[in-house]
Amino acid sequence: MCVKTCCCCLSLEVGTQIICIFNLLVPLAEAGYCLYVAVHLPLTEIKVTSIYIVLIVLAIFELFCAAVFTYGTFKKQASFLWPWLVLAWLKAVLLLVLFVVGATVLALQLQQGAVEITLVVVYIVYAVILLYFSCVGNSRRREIQADTYAHYAPRRTRSNSAIVRNVYVPMTKQLDGA
Questions:
Q1: Alpha-carbon gap, residue 134 to 152, rounded angstroms
Q2: 88-103: per-residue pLDDT in tens?
Q3: Residue 164 pLDDT level (bands cut at 50, 70, 90)
Q4: Which of 139, 122, 136, 123 has the alpha carbon at shortest distance from 19?
């Protein structure tokens, strides 16, 4: 596992649930911003408008992956975490490449300005955050796969007062004969 806890104080379960909520909001904000810009562009800027439409489609795809990730996290289904994890890793690698290219351009002083420097810093910060989130998500995925509480089966037992009740015993404990 990459990490044992999220942010040094939360369990992986709670941390992953918070990451899920965050990752549902980010694509919504991206799509909303791109839609706002695309609607307010003049009709003569068709090339720029088409770029924003592609960004909206990508944001919707990212939203879909985040929704699947959220479902898998809350329902404790490890296989549903994969699409978002792959997308987060790819996005982080792309942002790291953009950071290296941007830092190289700035180092060679081909173009220098506050906007370019800010973009390069945003790329590296967002990439590091995505890599940490994907590390937490992957650790949670492994925890769901390894933990015994992911697959419960009812088992009838008798308590001291001779009342029959359902007690949930993990499948691995049932297989061990416990």
A1: 27
A2: 999 999 999 988 988 8
A3: very low
A4: 136
Cα–Cα distance for residue pair 35/57, rounded to 1 Å: 10
DSSP-assigned states of every residue in 44-57: T-HHHHHHHHHHHH
Give the span between the Cα atoms of 82 and 167, in whole angstroms.
31
Distance of alpha carbon 177 from the chain centroid: 38
5-39 per-position pLDDT tens digit: 777 788 888 889 999 999 999 999 999 998 998 88
What are the DSSP E strand ranges found in the chain? Answer: 152-158, 164-170
The set of residues, in sequence order, having a beta carbon less than 8 Å from that of 96 and lying 6+ positions away, is 123, 124, 127
Q: Enter the tokens of residue 104.
A: 């190289």
DSSP state of 178: -
pTM: predicted TM-score of the whole model, two decimal places = 0.73
Under 8 Å between Cβ of 65 and 83: yes
Torsion from C-alpha of 26, 28, 31, 32, nearest 10 degrees: -110
User: In terms of DSSP H, where are the helices of 108-164?
Assistant: 114-146
Q: Do residues 116 and 102 touch, judged by C-beta distance below 8 A?
A: yes
Identify the residue whose tokens are 């925890």: 143
8 Å CB contact between 77 and 137: no
